[in-house]
Amino acid sequence: MSEVSLTINGRDVSAAPGTTILEAAKQIDVDIPTLCYLEGINEIGACRVCVVECEGSLLAACTTPVTDGMSVVTNSPKVRAARRTNVELILSDHDGDCLSCSRSMNCELQTIARNLGIREIRYEGEMSSHPRDESSPSLVRDPDKCILCQRCSSVCKQVQDVEAIDTVGRGFQMQVGPAFEQTMDEIACVNCGQCILVCPTGAITEKDYREEVWGALSDPDKHVVVQTAPAVRVSIGETLGMEPGSIVTGQMVAGLRLLGFDRVFDTDFAADLTIMEEGSELLARLNEGGTVPLLTSCSPGWIKYVEHFYPEFTDHLSTCKSPQQMFGALAKTFYAEKAGIKPEDIFVVSVMPCTAKKFEAQRPEMGASGYADVDVVLTTREMGLMFSEAGVDLRHLEEEEFDDPLGISTGAAAVFGATGGVMEAALRTVYELVTGEELEELDFHDVRGLQGVKEAEVDLQGTTVKVAVAHGLSKARGVLDAIKEGKADYTFVEVMCCPGGCIGGGGQPLPTDDEIRQKRIDAIYQVDRDMPLRKSHENPAVQALYEEYLGEPLSDKSHELLHTDYLRREAHAGYIG
User: Fold this and answer.
1) Given 360, 382, 424, 494, which residue is catalytic?
2) Cβ of 144: how many Cβ atoms within 10 Å?
3) Catalytic annotation on 360?
4) Which numeric CATH code is attached to 210-562?
5) Over the stretch 293-351, which tens digit does the pLDDT of each residue have?
6) Which CATH architecture has domain 130-206?
7) Residue-wise over 162-185: b if at least 16 C-beta within 10 A, else e?
8) What pLDDT, in 10s, does the model give residues 470-487?
9) Does residue 357 have an active-site annotation?
10) 322 an active-site residue?
């Protein structure tokens, strides 16, 4: 079908049939403000901020398709007045305490109000009021900041396939939250935080644990160590105004030392250790007739999703703890012994791109040393705020190295931060362990990229291992359903809860979109290429750990410290058994 011809602000535009006015305007770089709109996910025209004028009528640009001969004006007096009125009405029932809001100066509602020249609210009257929900260890829901755009619930349903929250109530009492007035800890929320990434205001935020960390840093009786996830080194610069994908590993280490951490370690060390354990587990299952496909266990949101919605697959999950928890267990046992420090005096802080890690750290199973493996989890955003509070600007710091022994890592560990990275790291090691041959090409491009599900096959001395990689839980559902229905014969499956993997985690800097995700992914692979060692089994610190302490992968000691089991939950917070 031929293209549609129209005019926008007097300029001729050609667009494909079905194109919306909003999309057509973007073709000629005309910006139309939106609040509720998320391309392909939430296109409902609810906020009416995107209205444009067409032959005297006001139309929502995000939902109205173009027609032949249409004449659109995006900035007429009528349009500007309507947008101002719509935003003022939103603000009239909005908690406007911006100074104490975590989204201040990074709030879409605030930006649009400023751009429209709104300096006062003309509409006064009763305001709706709902209690804050701080029941979750990961997320805080503040309905009084909510503008009912429904972006969060759309992402929860369409991208994550969880449907933990939706619109509830009617009229003035409508809000977005769990059904039946439940709290966030009573529902099947997986704590992924993707709702935070799309919320235009401060209605959903991570639970902030900065004060606990400041308290530990000021306690002379505490030995405070910090670990940083692979994805953080390519994203934390964004919190301080740097370009997405800026690699600031050495500056980040220097900054953490300036904050007062006694040791600055690297979660990448534990990622290498994870590959040794998980790779050995895969080989053991293949050789001994164990449950396959083996499903990776590094993503805590994914784990909770399986426990709630596919409990029959819990036996397929790798028993390996995530790198975060492996590190914590070793910090309070192996490191405590080497440093001559009591485990109870060691305070472990994790800096993660993930809000679900906050939940994971509080799971009762995560205490192999007799104490919590990890004491506090901070998101990338929280860590950025701590740097700002302390006046630490990474851009002006000289690079420094992680501390030994838990700071040595390989490029294989770095790629954990991107979707497909765990699979790629595992294949580098498993291939060489099985064949005894050195891989000529370390980059497994078939498992890389932002497409939803990737597949690949690897020949291990005559045994074909078929692998799959999925990111985003709706894509994971498709993989699990295919396995259940006998339509897929995978041997090994990697799932990351968040789109793009950890680089797109719910704790990452705002905004996060596919363009920014790709820049972070590119940086992760650059970190890998720049590493002198790129295979987990070649990490000398991991080799020494086995020689001195663990014995070998899957030993009794490693099972005690580095492995766990899972729950069979109902589709709410309870248990099946």
Assistant:
1) 360
2) 19
3) yes
4) 3.40.50.1780
5) 999 999 999 999 999 999 999 999 999 999 999 999 999 999 999 999 999 999 999 99
6) 2-Layer Sandwich (3.30)
7) bebbeebeeeeeebbbbeeebbbb
8) 999 999 999 999 999 999
9) yes
10) no
